[in-house]
């Protein structure tokens, strides 16, 4: 991990870095993502119902702007390639909505808001170029830690629109852009010794003896740690990805991708569980065998051109 470089991306080197990103994505189809944003305008109570949690999320994201997007590319065998930290100039610290406490915290974590505003990337430019890259790559996997806000910001960025009105509409729209989604915090709930998933990324990394590279609460460093933790988690607990694809921590609807995948012969198709019951904990050695799991056969898809909605 210490050999992985966190590549800083600004307006001046965007094209060069996206070219390398595109080339790397051909062999490394896991995108571990993290975002930095101006904090919460509404704080949601821990025991709030799902409708209120999503309503607050929508309000927070619709009324704030993304500051950083970190993406680390890796493969299914845990090989980490590179990390990109995209800095966006759209956020104006003097005029845009923000949480002052969060801004002070990000400053202490090393974010240079003056440089980001001056030298950063316009999101409209990034959106067009990034969608062109994603459209020519199939079977991408998106990895997050407690990733509801991260994916929601990425969805807002790629769709160039406000978030949908309900959480059910949110997962439907997310399925257009994200082929497969894995939330490490959700997976940790079913792994013995991981506190039922009630722990942060740094604590989980410590338990799994994964070291951090770079400063915490910078999108590049956090995305790199997310990628390394996911690789270690899969290796230690022998995680079968298909059991957790599409499940996000703290929301009940599953993201079920509508994008086509490579055809697998019907007799080789794996089985997909419905969401595991939340109060239960499992040891993730092989396929979960909880009696309340229900399985259905994965549908067969035909490989097509993977195009996104046209966004200008």
From TrEMBL:
It comes from the Eukaryota. One of its GO terms (cellular component) is cytoplasm. InterPro entries: CNOT7/CNOT8/Pop2, RNase_CAF1, RNaseH-like_sf, RNaseH_sf. Its cofactor is a divalent metal cation. Coiled coil: none annotated. It is found in: Cytoplasm; Nucleus. SUPFAM superfamilies: Ribonuclease H-like. It catalyses: Exonucleolytic cleavage of poly(A) to 5'-AMP. It holds the Pfam family CAF1. One of its GO terms (molecular function) is metal ion binding. Keywords: Cytoplasm, Exonuclease, Hydrolase, Metal-binding, Nuclease, Nucleus, RNA-binding, Transcription, Transcription regulation. Component of the CCR4-NOT complex, at least composed of CRR4 and CAF1 proteins. Belongs to the CAF1 family. Ubiquitous transcription factor required for a diverse set of processes. It is a component of the CCR4 complex involved in the control of gene expression. This is poly(A)-specific ribonuclease.
């Amino acid at each position: 991990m210490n050999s992985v470089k966190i590549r800083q991306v600004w307006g001046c080197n965007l094209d060069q870095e996206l070219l390398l990103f595109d080339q790397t994505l051909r062999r490394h189809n896991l995108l571990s993502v993290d975002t930095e944003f101006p904090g919460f305008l509404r704080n949601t109570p821990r025991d709030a119902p799902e409708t209120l949690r999503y309503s607050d999320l929508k309000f927070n994201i619709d009324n704030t702007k993304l500051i950083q997007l970190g993406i680390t590319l890796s493969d299914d065998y845990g090989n980490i390639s590179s990390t990109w930290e995209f800095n966006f100039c759209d956020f104006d610290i003097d005029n845009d909505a923000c949480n002052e406490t969060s801004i002070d915290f990000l400053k202490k974590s090393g974010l240079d808001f003056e440089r980001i505003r001056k030298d950063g990337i316009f999101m409209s430019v990034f959106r067009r170029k990034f969608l062109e890259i994603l459209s020519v790559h199939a079977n991408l996997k998106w990895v997050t830690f407690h990733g509801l806000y991260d994916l929601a910001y990425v969805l807002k960025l790629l769709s160039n629109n406000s978030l949908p009105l309900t959480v059910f509409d949110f997962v439907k729209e997310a399925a257009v852009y994200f082929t497969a989604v894995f939330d490490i915090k959700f997976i940790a709930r079913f792994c013995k010794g991981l506190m039922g998933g009630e722990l942060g990324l740094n604590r989980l990394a410590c338990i799994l003896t994964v070291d951090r590279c770079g400063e915490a609460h910078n999108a590049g460093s956090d995305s790199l740690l997310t990628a390394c933790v996911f690789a270690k988690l899969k290796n230690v607990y022998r995680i079968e990805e298909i059991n957790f694809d599409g499940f996000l921590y703290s929301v009940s609807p599953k993201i079920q991708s509508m994008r086509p995948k490579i055809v697998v012969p019907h007799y080789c198709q794996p089985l997909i569980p419905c969401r595991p019951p939340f109060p239960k904990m499992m040891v993730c050695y092989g396929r979960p065998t909880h009696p309340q799991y229900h399985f259905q056969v994965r549908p067969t898809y035909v490989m097509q051109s993977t195009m996104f909605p046209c966004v200008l």
